[in-house]
Amino acid sequence: MTELAKQIEAKGLTHWQLLTTASAAAVVGSFFMHSPAFASDDEGSRPTVWIELGGQFSPQKDDQEVFSPVFPDSPSRPSIFSPSQPFEHAPRSSFDETGKLSIEPSGTDLVFSAAVRYGRSQNKKKIHQQTNPSPFVKYYYGTFPNASGVVARRLYHNTRFPSAARFADTTVQVSEQHLVLDFQAGKDVGLGLFGSRGGSSVVSVGVRFAQFISKSNIAIKSNPDWHFHYKYFSAAKNYGFLSSKFATGQIYHSNQASLQATRSFHGIGPSLSWNASLPVLGHQDNEISVDWGVNVALLFGRQRAKIQHQTTGSYHGAKYDPAQRVVVYHPTPVNVSRSHSVTVPNVGGFAGLSFRYTNAKVSLGYRADFFLGAVDNGIDRKISKDRGFYGPYASIGIGL
Fold first, then answer.
1. Helix locations, 249-371, DSSP H
2. Is the sign of the CA dihedral 278, 7, 5, 371 positive or negative?
3. Can you tell me the distance from the alpha carbon of 201 to that of 362, in angstroms, rounded to the nearest whole number?
């Protein structure tokens, strides 16, 4: 029964390591079922087919280069508002779904398995920050002779309502998805303590396929320096005005920038894993075991990045016509498309506990899996960054 439990555990591990773990787990499970410690068990009573389903919560590293447009004629955003960069991040975490099918031929220590891991996540938000300027109102008295020559004294006011405001808008849509497939064959080599006490030590080889895709759509708008334009009339006192300051117009900048990016990696290559399990409590029909393992792979594939971004700055400087606009900054839009053949090392490991029964197993633990330099996260130039998954996992396995 330990063998059964262990093979289920192997599947749980699979969920975490997508491909390597899945295959390694399958190998471990089958080996467990055929371990020397239970050689006396009836071979026909042990399942030869195992199905395992599970999931993993994975915090994700955010290594994408931030979009920081520059507007040389004015500040990019009002200093009183938060910068846009903290809002542009990729999804912080994902919940991955895992599945594994393993076949353990009776009378052998071999296990053949196929495993899949799939996950997707997104960061979608719109941040609006704005001031609320008050209208400009200035009261004054004016003395003017009427038609009869009588001097009249009247109260006047100069009122200008704001046609704009200082604001900063950030709209972000960032999504990612990943897929890892594992096909493996393994054998329980029964090394030392693990083979002699009903444990398992499984070495597996196989093929791993990995695919990572991310998309970013970022739009930034701001008015960093809106203000009224004032006019001082030097001859105002000749007309009896109490104030010579008047609001004659409104001056401000309009800044806009956008970024669209699609990044991907597709790779396939050989994988190698070692998974071990050691019972610590119970017996073969109902036991708790400690599980651990490591995996490595070398993926050969292609890394792609397609980037488009544009920046525009406008100046509203008309003293009397707020609708007048002059474009002062409009560089040529940037379109970048990169594609590189890359070799990506993949390393990972896990540790956990399994609760094993005759035809079922529940596994809990922590797994990490890293693909080194897999994704091009740069904007105007290539910047290779790691793609990693790490966090707690859980899985349930059933033997048929």
1. none
2. positive
3. 19
Query: Using only C-alpha atoms, what is the Rg of the chain?
Result: 34
Angle 210-265-51 (CA atoms, 0-180°, nearest 5)?
A: 15
Element (H, E) at 77: none
The residue among 391, 366, 277 whose CA lies nearest residue 9 is 277
pLDDT in tens, 141-158: 555 666 666 555 565 566
310: closest CA among 253, 383, 382, 261?
261
Three-state DSSP at 68 gives coil
Decide if 302 contacts 242 (C-beta within 8 A): no
Q: Count the Cβ atoms, other than its own, within 10 Å of residue 318.
A: 16
pLDDT in tens, 325-346: 677 778 888 999 999 999 999 9
Strands (E), 131-199: 136-145, 151-160, 167-188
Distance of CA 2 to the CA centre of its chain: 39
CB atoms within 10 A of CB 240: 14
Q: Model-level pTM? A: 0.73
d(CA 209, CA 116): 10
The tokens for 245 are 């300051």
Beta strands in 224-332 (DSSP E): 227-232, 245-283, 286-316, 326-329
Residue 374 has a CB neighbour count (10 Å cut-off) of 26
The token pair that represents 118 in the structure block? 């799939």
3-state secondary structure at position 400: coil
